[in-house]
Write a structure and sequence with these properties.
The complex is a heterodimer. By secondary structure, chain A is mainly beta. Chain A has one domain: Porin. Chain A is built from one helix and ten strands. Chain A has an eight-stranded antiparallel barrel with strand order 1-3-4-5-6-8-9-10. Chain A is elongated. In chain B, a hairpin with a 5-residue loop joins strand 11 and strand 12 (382-385). Chain B folds into two domains: 32-136, no CATH class; 149-282 and 317-360 and 399-434, 2-enoyl-CoA Hydratase, Chain A, domain 1, CATH 3.90.226.10. In chain B, helix 2 packs antiparallel against helix 3 and helix 9 (221-229) packs across helix 10. In chain B, strands 3-4-5-6-9-10-14 form a seven-stranded mixed sheet, with helices on both faces. Chain B has a four-stranded antiparallel sheet with strand order 2-1-12-11. Chain B has a three-stranded antiparallel sheet with strand order 8-7-13. Chain B is built from 13 helices and 14 strands. Chain B is an alpha/beta fold. Classes of the chains: A mainly beta, B alpha/beta. Chains A and B meet through strand 5, strand 6 and strand 7 of A and helix 1, helix 2 and strand 8 of B.
């Protein structure tokens, strides 16, 4: 019985391989990270999203002309902005975060031989590789002889301008990332081998970037949208 | 084709259900909105939550604040049951619980007062906890205050204070007696002193014709100056200000300044802006004494970058080439300790004395500046006095809870402080004269 099952499985696999094709590509584009964080009672803090760069190496294996599985390696720039309003207007911080994502997706495609569209969905795991901050903060009281009532003067050279790498704190930062990803794309086959691609992607993180050690504070999540352009090389049998 | 559509729809439904896996935002109340409660557990949670978002030094604490809640909440819930059964709560027991929770904090500025709303009529209604004062008592060189110059006015007015601090005349202050003795020997002049109750005491003099000396009990010069500018004619205010002005005149106008001695023993701290009127007088260049950092968000470990902690020259200043010596001791706190860090950062600075108290954190009176620091009502149900910034020295060492170590160590146990002798001050003069 077991032997028969194995033979069937092998035959099915050979059938898939006969129709399968591999593709490997390189894509890059612009992304925009939307940062979700409740500011609680810090009412004059304003958080916003930040644009960045995304580079992806997609690797796809098609079982059939409409169904495939895809695993990428993606470098994703995320980040967020923060600025104060009111009395402390002029103080701000831009945080740039660098992530590596490895998504695994099921790919559904449709269309003709020359032009095809596809929708991919799946999940990803990733890591927060580095973080960088720049902005203006206030010097401690006592540094300047003249303390002014409004902090708007931080916009000039008297504020502390910083532009530096952020050292991770295990107790603060959750560097593991995972979530859902989905994309829609369209491709144009220039030759049998080469395809030009355009894709719109969403990375929806399910991991709070604050470590569990930051207990009882507002969770903070990244959702990143990207528009990428690139090409893919097809090889293997079938279509 | 229909099969494909069904597959995609099922997948989308699956995705939608996973999307809802994100944690929902909890309501975060400002500490001032957590002041009213009925039960001991509510009081504990109010203090716990406020500390969670307001304390600026969580990364220095070994104790995990979450586990503190896990450990102590059941004990407070048991107290709730006790109250519900009409049994009063012993203030001593409540104090012991909160001392276990808060007594080991690194922030040496921190001070807590808690009201026992469930005490019996015979019991104390409140208690206070000062982690810094608890810690310094464990140091092998711990001693009580010796000089008590800040109380001199009260001592001269009230016998009770005079007996408590053993101060019956100005000459009972060690530095005044020392200056007077030098004056009798022809080695000191321009001796001035004054004290404003609950504000500050200043003693100044000129040693060997070229070493201006000042003792300052508290950094309240900015306030003293405002008294004068507002036309305050109190003889105590005028005498205290004259003592400062005499020191300033000697620093700025003497032909030769061989060195300067700033004496901040038992100085309890005060305004950072006082730097412009004291140490800022002794340099024509900004001095970076270290870095400081503040909370930046409500997360326990959300911090700003380390920001250079600079001190600028004052409006009136002179570059002093000779040694600038600062004298401080165990009971020199806060701005007094920051002053020792400034002097140590000066190329010609020297710190003589004992390792200081260890409360260098900067306190900003405006809670909304960083949404951290002091919370509650002093005299109300609970109150916490906390630093808003943490400081590290030029070598990158965070000395909060440890104190600043002197360049030349002295001790009260081995020092001489009677009959016009003050071995600490004599050592400062020796350093200025010999360079060692």
């Amino acid at each position: 019985m077991m032997k028969k099952f194995s033979i069937c499985l092998l035959a099915l696999s050979l059938c898939f391989v006969a129709r399968a094709q591999w593709s490997v590509g390189i894509m890059a584009g612009y992304d925009y990270n939307s940062y979700s964080m409740a500011k609680g009672y810090a009412y004059d803090y304003r958080y916003g999203g930040m644009g960045g760069l995304e580079v992806t190496v997609p690797v796809q294996y098609n079982f059939m002309d409409w169904l495939g599985v895809r695993a990428d390696i993606s470098y994703v720039q995320k980040g967020h902005t923060m600025h104060r309003t009111g009395v402390y207007e002029g103080l701000w911080t831009d945080t740039r975060d660098h992530y590596l994502h490895i998504p695994l997706m099921v790919s559904f495609s449709l269309g003709g031989e020359k032009v095809r569209g596809w929708v991919d969905a799946g999940g990803y795991v990733g890591g927060w590789l580095a973080s960088w901050q720049k902005g203006i903060d206030e010097y401690p009281i006592g540094s300047e002889p003249e303390q002014e009532g409004s902090f708007k003067y931080y916009q000039d050279e008297r504020g502390y301008h910083f532009d530096e790498k952020v050292e991770f704190l295990d107790r603060r930062d959750q560097r593991f990332d995972a979530g859902l990803t989905g994309l829609a794309g369209v491709g144009w086959k220039v030759t049998h081998l080469l395809e030009l691609r355009l894709e719109g992607v969403c990375w929806y993180s399910l991991i709070d970037t604050a470590s569990r050690m930051q207990d009882n504070v507002a969770p903070r999540y990244n959702t990143t949208w990207a528009l990428r352009l690139g090409c893919a090389f097809h090889f293997g049998g079938g279509k | 084709m229909t099969k494909k559509i069904y597959t995609i729809l099922i997948l989308m439904a699956l995705i939608a259900s996973i999307v809802s896996c994100r944690k929902t935002e909890a309501e975060i109340l400002t500490p001032s909105n957590q002041m009213d409660y009925k039960w001991p557990s509510e009081q504990f949670l109010s203090i716990w939550n406020s500390m969670n978002t307001s304390y600026a030094m969580w990364d220095l604490e070994e104790k995990d604040w979450t586990s503190v809640k896990d450990e102590f909440l059941p004990e407070f819930l048991a107290l709730d049951d006790s109250v519900k059964a009409d049994h009063p709560i012993s203030t001593k027991h409540l104090e012991e619980l909160y001392t276990d929770i808060l007594g080991n904090l690194t922030d040496h500025h921190s001070y807590f007062s808690v009201k026992n709303l469930w005490a019996s009529d015979e019991d104390r209604s409140s208690f206070s906890i000062s982690p810094g004062n608890i810690e310094i008592r464990k140091r092998d060189y711990y001693h009580d205050t010796h000089i008590n110059s800040k109380y001199v006015n009260l001592c001269l007015k009230y016998e009770e204070y005079a007996n408590k601090y053993n101060i019956h005349s100005w000459e009972d202050l060690t530095m005044v007696a020392w200056l007077k003795k030098l004056e009798a020997e022809g080695k000191a002049s321009d001796i001035k002193y004054g004290s404003v109750s609950y504000l500050m005491t200043i003693v100044s003099g000129l040693i060997e014709g070229s070493i201006p000396y000042i003792h300052i009990s508290d950094f309240s010069l900015s306030e003293l100056k405002s008294y004068i500018e507002d036309g305050n004619k109190s003889s105590n205010v005028i005498a205290t200000y004259e003592a400062y002005e005499s020191f300033k005149k000697n620093v700025l106008e003497l032909e030769e300044v061989k060195g300067v001695i700033i004496d901040v023993r038992e100085n309890g701290g005060g305004y950072l802006n006082d730097n412009f009127y004291l140490l800022g007088m002794l340099t024509d260049q900004p001095v970076q004494m270290g870095w400081s950092r503040h909370k930046c968000g409500l997360g326990r470990f959300d911090y700003s970058p380390w920001i250079p902690h600079n001190f600028s020259p004052g409006p009136e200043h002179r570059a002093i080439d000779g040694p600038v010596v600062i004298i401080a001791d165990l009971n020199s706190v806060s701005m007094a300790e920051i002053s020792t860090l400034i002097v140590k950062a000066m190329p010609n600075g020297c710190f003589i004395g004992e390792r200081t108290f260890g409360a260098h954190g900067v306190i900003n009176g405006d809670f909304e500046a960083t949404f951290s620091g002091t919370f509650g009502n002093n005299g109300g149900n609970h109150f916490a006095y906390l630093s808003t910034r943490i400081v590290k020295d030029l070598n990158g060492n965070i000395l909060e809870g440890i104190g600043v170590t002197p360049d030349i160590e002295m001790s009260y146990a081995q020092g001489t402080f009677k009959d016009g002798e003050d071995s600490w001050l004599s050592r400062a003069v020796e350093y200025i004269n010999t360079g060692k």
